[in-house]
């Protein structure tokens, strides 16, 4: 059976800092009375697999199709152990912990049964004046951070950046970071669920802190100068393609279209993930709205995006490890 374009049904995860914007802004059906912080849109991770929504494969886990039809899905004869990327929508109604994700080398050396996590964020919405914590201040050493932990002054040694809808941030493994309250974002990441909490604002009830692991996993001399990037908000006269990141793990591009525009895209031969982050458009015969996630399998060599009377912004992400 030929694999069609697949719409994904997410796995919803409870978080103490979650809110209700995944429902009221992104049309996710949230369980009543629960704080849902994350919608795992495309996931082959055992902690939260996503499923196919509609069509001949309705209800099947995404990973099952990957293992049954690897050539059609991702263009290789033998399927990977799991799909290497995970895509989420995150609703931070309150501040997340200050945290860090390890890289693949750290997880291998420590015998952790999961991957490292390099990720990126596209900000869909935030309150005026919202910031993110994003890296150490210049010159901060491990000893400085140990002293800050001892004196409970960790936020004083961290960088803060203002964010706005349309802001993009690349977050390599080893980067200290925190999403702060009032932020709604789309996250593309390595398929991993490893997080080390460095600091949790002395909140009650207390959650586990991983100070030793965090201090070991942090990159104190990042090769990249960290800074956010903001997409042009004005609808383009012709469809606009912006390369947001291409790293060893994934490539993410932003496709921006004004009203009444059309774009045909070829795909890299390993499948492509499409996330609607602003407006709406047609994806071949499908409606792609804000909050939707689709997977275009490798057997479909190209696809067409087309707007009617609304603008649209779509994130297109693909794995660089399957090439």
Can you give a write-up of this model?
By secondary structure, this protein is mostly beta strands. It has two domains: 6-230, Jelly Rolls (Sandwich), CATH 2.60.120; 240-319, Jelly Rolls, CATH 2.60.120.10. Helices cover 12% and strands 39% of the residues. It is built from six helices and 22 strands. Strands 1, 4, 15, 16, 17, 18, 19, 20, 21 and 22 form a ten-stranded antiparallel β-sheet that branches. A seven-stranded antiparallel β-sheet has the order 2-3-5-12-7-10-14, with no helix packed on it. The longest helix is centred in the middle third of the chain and has 9 residues, at 142-150.
Instruction: Find the CATH topology of the largest domain.
Output: Jelly Rolls
**What is the CATH class designation of the largest domain?**
Mainly Beta
Total of domains: 2
Could you tell me how far the N terminus lies from the C terminus, measured between alpha carbons in angstroms?
A: 24 Å
| Mean pLDDT figure | 96
Query: Unreliable stretches, pLDDT < 50, 5 or more residues?
Result: none
Number of strands: 22
Q: Beta-strand level of the residues, as a percent range?
A: 35-45%
Radius of gyration: 19 Å
Q: What is the CATH homologous superfamily assignment of the largest domain?
A: Jelly Rolls
Main sheet: strands, sense, barrel: 10 strands, antiparallel
The ordered H/E elements are EEHEEHHEEHEEHEEEEEHEEEEEEEEE
In percent, how helical is the residue content? 10-25%
Instruction: Report the total helices.
Output: 6
């Amino acid at each position: 059976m030929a694999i069609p374009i697949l719409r994904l049904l997410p796995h919803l995860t409870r978080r103490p800092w979650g809110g209700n914007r995944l429902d009221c802004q992104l049309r996710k059906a949230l369980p009543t009375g629960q704080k849902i912080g994350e919608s795992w849109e495309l996931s082959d991770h055992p902690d939260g697999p996503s499923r196919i929504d509609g069509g001949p494969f309705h209800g099947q886990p995404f990973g099952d199709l990957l293992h049954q039809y690897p050539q059609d899905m991702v263009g290789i004869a033998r399927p990977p152990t799991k799909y290497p990327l995970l895509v989420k929508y995150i609703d931070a109604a309150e501040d997340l912990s200050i945290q860090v994700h390890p890289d693949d080398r750290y997880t291998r050396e420590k015998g952790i049964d999961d991957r490292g996590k390099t990720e990126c964020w596209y900000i869909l919405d935030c309150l005026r004046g919202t910031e993110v914590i994003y890296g150490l201040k210049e010159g901060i050493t491990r000893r400085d951070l140990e002293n800050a932990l001892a004196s409970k002054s960790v936020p004083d040694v961290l960088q803060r950046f203002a964010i706005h809808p349309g802001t993009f941030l690349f977050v390599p493994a080893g980067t200290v970071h925190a999403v702060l309250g009032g932020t709604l974002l789309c996250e593309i990441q390595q398929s991993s669920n490893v997080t080390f909490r460095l600091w949790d604002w002395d909140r009650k009830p207390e959650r586990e802190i991983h100070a030793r692991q965090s201090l070991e996993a942090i990159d104190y001399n990042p090769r990249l100068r960290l800074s956010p990037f903001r997409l042009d908000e004005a609808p383009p006269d012709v469809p606009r393609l912006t390369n947001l990141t291409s790293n060893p793990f994934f490539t993410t591009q932003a496709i921006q279209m004004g009203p009444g525009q059309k774009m045909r895209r070829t795909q890299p031969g390993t499948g492509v993930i499409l996330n609607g982050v602003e407006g709406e458009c047609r994806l071949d015969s499908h409606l792609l709205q804000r909050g939707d996630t689709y997977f275009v399998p490798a057997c479909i060599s190209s696809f067409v995006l087309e707007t009617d009377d609304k603008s649209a912004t779509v994130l297109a992400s693909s794995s660089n490890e399957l090439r």
